[in-house]
Write a sequence for this structure.
């Protein structure tokens, strides 16, 4: 699949549920209204949709959410999608998780062919962790991470950089990831969904500033390591682990975008930061044949926009896109 700007679309991120067992302050409001269950695609429908994308050229699938591991029966979907790894149609099946359920699922994930996972963790301080996630327990995530390691999964920690909240912990996070053998990626907070915007402006921290701060203590060697995602990677000489930065606000990385995102209701967003979307649920349910679905996918890719225009600025209207990150998935 090639879009109008010549970019090959080989990476599909799928939000398998909008529900989550955490309420991270920068991601969701505390009193979120979730989708009625009837609107959400069944696991079989999600499989059929993902498989159509794989047939059409997607090489990397990432399951996300909401929290993917709170979707009931999720291992049925993951086991089933694992068949595309076995045939070689898919290079990678992975997921982004908050880690709360990893103790239960790590072995199953490894058995299904998952090799790497991203775990979101912004702080190593357990009180701060509960404050940030509202409902999360750091111990549970730590136990999940150990289970992932024991199952042989490679772990990448994703931390959203929040000024005045975790910026004083960057060095600890780097050292801890070095000790544990995890890669680490810092992410700029993006203006998505209504959460109380004053808070977001106050917390926003450009990663150029974070990197300068980190380089006072650590030696960052340039690398051209790529995962197919948007992070720019360095190697931390002192730990030997990779450190990445995802900078949607200070550096627009859309020119190399290879991704599209599917929600759990079958809506395809061709860009995380734009509102245009294509409904794939109707063509999916229209016929047992996948022909209408494949036509709809092709038509959507032909509309993929050139890029997003996120801005965090007091003069701008609040959120650049009205949907929360939990809808389109991180
Ligand atoms: N529940 C899973 C998790 O916690 O990783 C997957 C979904 S979560 C929405 C995916 C990622 O998006 C997390 O790393 C989270 O920190 C990040 N995220 C959520 N809202 C964000 C925002 N406004 N800006 C930047 N990252 C955000």
């Amino acid at each position: 699949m090639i879009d109008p700007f010549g970019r090959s679309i080989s990476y599909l991120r799928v939000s398998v549920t909008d529900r989550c067992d955490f309420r991270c302050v920068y991601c969701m409001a505390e009193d979120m209204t979730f989708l009625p269950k009837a609107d959400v695609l069944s696991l079989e429908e999600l499989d059929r949709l993902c498989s159509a994308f794989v047939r059409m050229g997607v090489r990397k699938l990432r399951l996300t959410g909401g929290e993917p591991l709170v979707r009931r029966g999720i291992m049925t979907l993951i086991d089933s999608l694992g068949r595309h790894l076995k045939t070689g149609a898919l290079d990678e099946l992975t997921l982004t998780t908050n880690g709360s359920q990893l103790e239960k699922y790590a072995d199953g994930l490894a058995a299904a062919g998952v090799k790497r996972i991203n775990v979101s963790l912004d702080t190593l301080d357990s009180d701060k962790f509960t404050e940030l996630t509202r409902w999360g327990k750091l111990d549970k995530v730590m136990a999940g991470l150990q289970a992932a390691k024991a199952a042989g999964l490679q772990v990448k920690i994703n931390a959203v950089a929040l000024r005045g909240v975790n910026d004083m912990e960057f060095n600890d996070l780097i050292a801890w990831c070095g000790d544990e053998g995890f890669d680490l990626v810092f992410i700029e907070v993006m203006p998505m969904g209504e959460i109380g915007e004053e808070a977001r402006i106050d917390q926003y921290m450009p990663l150029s500033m974070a990197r300068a701060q980190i380089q006072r203590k650590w030696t960052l060697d340039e690398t051209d390591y790529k995962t197919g995602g948007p992070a720019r990677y360095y190697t931390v000489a002192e730990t030997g682990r990779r450190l990445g930065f995802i900078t949607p606000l200070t550096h627009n990385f859309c020119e190399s975008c290879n991704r599209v995102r599917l929600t759990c209701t079958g809506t395809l967003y061709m860009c995380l930061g734009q509102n245009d979307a294509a409904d794939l649920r109707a063509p999916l349910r229209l016929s047992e044949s996948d022909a209408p679905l494949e036509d709809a996918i092709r038509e959507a890719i032909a509309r993929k926009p050139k890029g997003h225009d996120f801005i965090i600025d007091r003069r701008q209207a609040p959120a650049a896109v009205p949907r929360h990150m939990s809808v389109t998935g991180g």
